[in-house]
Design a protein that fits this description.
about 475 residues, Alkaline Phosphatase, subunit A, 2 domains, 4-stranded antiparallel sheet, about 30% helix
Amino acid sequence: MSQSVEYFWMITIVVTAFFFDFSPSQAEDRPQQPNVVLFVSDDHGLDALGCYGNPVIQTPNMDRLAEDGIRFTRAYCTSASCAASRSVILTGQFGHATGSYGHVHDYHHFSTFDDVKSLPVMLEQAGYRTTRIGKYHLAPDSVYRFQETLKVDPRSTVEMANACQQTIASGQPFFLYFCPDDPHRGHPFTPAVWSDPNSFGNLPEGYPGVKTVTYQPDEVLIPPFLPNTQQCREELAQYYQSVSRIDQGLGRLMELIDEAGKSENTIIIYLSDNGIAFPGAKTTVYEPGIHLPLIVKDPRCEEVGSINHAMITWADLTPTILEMTDTDVDSTHFHGRSFAGILDQPSPEGWDQMFAAHNFHELTMYYPMRVIRQGDHKLIWNIAHGLSYPFASDLWASSTWQGMHRSKASHFGKRLVSDYLMRPEFELYDLSSDPDEIKNLASEPKHADLFEKLKGELREFQIETKDPWQIQWNNESQVQGTGVGL
């Protein structure tokens, strides 16, 4: 090489390093953005994880995530329906404020308003590679835009994880939205024989890379809200098998992250969109429908294997992830708030209240409910209390319900069938003495002050979040009449 050419390249390298900040010392000084995996299972209740106290279910990878991270004991979705819940997860806003009232797919057609800004869009603007795989259940794409969509059988959880290998190995910080279909009920919802259990996506031949873990009906644990019948036990056994398949997908995903050398810079958040797909849980705002698992592993957090009793909701997830990734946004944009700063505090002050708001599941299931839980007290407002409680198509067809319905049983679990189907306007429970929500205190004089206080706070929440259903409070709503006659 001639002396002049060599001199030219030397000057080029110096100038490039100066303008583009490529010097090794400066690169080391720059903070590294953490990767984020948001793992959202489909209809997984608190009842079926080893780390939450079930000694039968085999979930070694979920248990290991809890050992390496933080397990929340009072985490809630805000709507016990897949699409509505997922909209809250990715926007930090309640569905009644964004138009996400119920299911997106098929004939339901609920869709988020065009001007809503979602988590993947905000992270993309912050320099993240955004990837989704599995269940989507959101609309429109312009709002919930991901740069990359990976298409794999959403029941084949190990294959799902393997498909993410390139994303994980990328040199760019990544946000991976990982959503298996498990343990949602499998098609067809209506069996050939009414008493046959649903498959919950299980196949006789199994799935690639997955060790099939089966359970016997006589070994499953019956949650108190479900009947101890053969049909229910058989369906729970199938549900457990589906959960164990999720667990293996989570394990493979963590293995790939470790192999890429990114375990120390990857936040993993595990949760479910709503409760178990059985009557009394999914689509209801009783505890089995909305009180859910949440495990957060942030390698930057010194507390590991700990328990956090903060009462949080899925409306808090987007602002939390944005703070964890140091993404600068206006926090007043959200209905939730970040819990990133209280991960290492087992019982932080000021985290003892939550709200929930359910409107629809399927389009034909109109039954709006509003909830406030404050400490151990929980108030449910059944706005459509004059109607019979509606069934999701898969829950109605379930052998668990059909067994009770055909036998004309008086009770479904601990609850009277008549009370499940026809509900009062208000339900007030003390969860410390009545965790199964059986004894309604709303009409008891000694609880009158508490009842009025919670109603007032529920109404304020509706006004603050621009809830159209606030109109039901004596027709004195701030939104009543807007849009009429335009």
